[in-house]
Structures are given as structure tokens and as C-alpha cells.
Amino acid sequence: MRPDQSVQALGPGSAHWRRLIPVAFVTYSLAYVDRANYGIGSAAGLAHDLGIAGKQDALLGALFSLGYFLCQIPAAWYAEAHSARRLMFWGLIAWGLLAALTGVITDIHWLYLDRLLLGVAESAVLPGMLIFLSHWFTRAERSRANSFLILGSPVTVLWMSIVSGYLAHAIGWRGMFIAEGVPTVIWAFAWWWLVRDTPAEAAWLPPRERDRIATALAREQQGLRRVKNYAAAFRTPMVIVLAIQYFCWGAGISGFIIWLPSMLKAGRAIGIVEIGWLSAAPYLLATVLMVLVSYWSDRSGRRRAFVWPFLIVGAAAFLGAYWLGRAAFWPGFMLLVVAGGAMYAPFGPFFAWFSETLPRNVAGGAIALINSCGALGGFIGAYAVGFINAATGGPSVSFLVMAVTLLISGVLTLTAREQVDHGRPESLRH
Q1: Residues with Cβ < 8 Å from 234, sequence gap 6 or more?
Q2: Which of 6, 4, 1, 8 is nearest to 423 (CA)?
Q3: Spatial contact of 176 and 103, defined as CB atoms under 8 Å apart
Q4: I need a surface site. Which of 24, 73, 317, 347 has the fewest CB within 10 A?
């Protein structure tokens, strides 16, 4: 069998695609329900009922990212050394319970703790899931597999923004948090039943396909330069540059996700249901772009070229929204839609980059370090945007801040090393 035939056999029609990608998508989707509905809850009365002032609201919006930052590397180490399946099972239960608890808390100090612990619980999800997928999907599939995983973010925020608006209207913000937290706990048991850590453990996978996946993944590892340990990997120029890059990217995207509903409310006198519908629009564009960009990246064998242009476009859109200010709500809103779509579009190629440049023993740790820097950027970005909005009485200045962070992120991407795969199978090149 020629190498390209082996890779062709591992396309989206294969058994592992049909079983694992829907499960990964749902798992990541549930994580985003429980982190992104805070903005809807805040706008729907949480801040008013608990007596939360603007700067306290900014801190609450950002504490999740701080907790998310703290446990990235330990989560990656456990997923690679022990079991991503077990890590995600307990993570699902923990963050589902903590998310539901948001709906029963009556004191702001307990809410501070809950938001921080929710971030800690969800810190497992991205490194754990990316490591899990890297044990199942080859280089020729990886950008698309990652994108279908991370599509759980924009797709979920899309429908969650609409459904949460209706739920908050119908049963209040407390009922909304409880109704959207409990399904995650239930899904933990479905996850445990449906997945296995490696193809060798999957009785449902045809033996021939199991052997093809194992052979293709082993061949990829043979072509990578050995890196001794996490410390050595963390000192490589590529990891350092992309950690700073993702810090800036995270600052822009987190401020956008958490505070978009409040920014829309500040710009126009509209109800919570209308805010939910408008908040969904950027994520609809993001969903389409993520699928297209990951396909083009896998087809070309390139990653960097499908990351930096979109970050620059996002920066330009935020800059345009800043210039327009409050004077033109609908043109400014359309620019926010473009910014949101552009920020999400490159995630698939970006996270495929590391597992194709670093060997398996350190790739998960590098992903975790870079993602933790993104989480730290998210904490600072979410807090800064909330603080600036409260201090200035509107979102215009925060648009400028997000434009600068995305511009820096796009420029830094151009300086990072890339290993280009010129041996892309014919089925993906044409």
C-alpha cells in the first residue's frame, strides 16, 4: 500500500470520524455553554440582583480565565501520561455542577469562587481534547478534526445566545444557569461509554482501520526531531513566540465573547431576546469560516498562512468599529460580526501546528503552555474590556484595545517557524 492510500483511507468517512468527531464536538460545546452564558446572565439581571457594580462585574467575567490558566499544563501532562478519557469524564462532572451552582448563589463572594473553580475545571478541556484527537487523527486530517472540535465554541455560542435569551426571559437568570449546567453532568457518562484513549483500545473500530491509523501516526513521529522534555520544548523559539501570540489573541477573543451582549445593550435600547439573536451572528460566520479554512489548510499542507491574515482582518474590523463609535449602530455591528468570524477562523490550523512540529512526548505540554498563555490573556482581556466599558460608559475604547491585541498577534504569527507538508495526498490537493 502506498502512503497516500493509507492516508486517504483515514478520511471523514472512516469509522473513527463518524464516532469520535460528534462526541468531541458535543463535549467542547458543553464547555462553551457554561463559560459564555455569563454575559447573557449578567445582562438579564444577575448583576442587578446581586448588587454587582461595573468593576466587580468585570472581575467576575475575568475570573474564569484566571482559573482556566492555572491548570493547563497539569491537565495536559495527565492526558498524555495517563488518560484523556478519564480526565474529561471528571472534568465534565465538575464543570457541569459548578455551572449549575451559579444559579443558586446569592452572595458575590461565593460567585467569585464559583467562577474561579469553573475555570479550573474547564482547564482540562482544550489540552485534553487536542491530545485525545492527536492520538486518533493523522496530519492529513488534523486541522479539520481540530476545527470540528473547536466548532463547538462558535456553534454553541450561536445557539446558546438565542436559547439563553429566551430561558432568561422565561425562567430568569437563575433557572437559565441551572438548565444549562445539568446536561453536562449527564453527558459525562455518555462520553465514558463512547470513547477510548487510543485506537488499540477501540473494539468498535475495524482491525484494518485500526492498523492504518497506528501506522500513519507512528510514521509521523519518526519524522520529528526528538525533544527531551517539557522544559526543553518550552525554550524553543516557536513555542515562546506562539505563547506570546496566543496571549494577545486570547485577550481579544475573550473580551469579545464575554462582553458582546453588554456592548450591544450599551449601543442600543433593545431587549434581552434581541440581544441574544444579535450576539449569535458573529458565531454563524465563524462556523462557516472555520470549516473552510481548516479544509484549505489540510489541502495545502500549510498552517501559518491560514492564521495570520484572519487576525489582521479582525484587528481592522475592531478598528473600524472604534472609528464609528455609537453614531452608526448597524455598520458597527456588522464590523463586530466580521471581527468575531475572523478571530475564530484560524483555530483548526493553529492547533494542528504543534503536533506536526514537536514530538508527542512534548506536543501536549506545548499546547497547554500556549493555551494557558491564551487563558491569561483572556483573563486580562475580559477584565480590561469590562473595566473600560464601565469606566467610559461604552465599548468604543475597548474596540481599540482588541484591535491592537489582534494586530500584535497576527504580526507575531509571521515570525514563527512552520514545517510544511509537501507530500499532501492527491485526494486533498485536488
Answers
A1: 240, 365, 366, 369
A2: 4
A3: yes
A4: 73
